[in-house]
Amino acid sequence: xxxxxxxxxxxxxxxxxxxxxxxxxxxxxxxxxxxxxxxxxxxxxxxxxxxxxxxxxxxxxxxxxxxxxxxxxxxxxxxxxxxxxxxxxxxxxxxxxxxxxxx
Length: 103
Prior knowledge:
This protein has helices at residues 10-18, 30-35, 49-55, 71-81, 93-102; strands at residues 6-8, 23-26, 42-43, 62-65, 87-90. It is α/β, with parallel strands linked by helices. It is globular and about 35 Å long.
């Protein structure tokens, strides 16, 4: 049976990241990523997903981030369907993360 992913807010994402090695995938376009991103995040295009799906250990937590938290859910679903144990979609996306950083 496929795992499910969870939608989490910025505070919960920080908690997951504080536990150690977490793969943070930012699926925004490279220009937006260059203007600002979560520290340690990797910019991943749709073409990169196969690499991450097959090269990332399935027990490693994965947080997917987009602009506002919508398209990240589609990518998170793919990771969950592939058997990853801990998959999250960042609610509010990078916009929420950046707003929390400014607060």
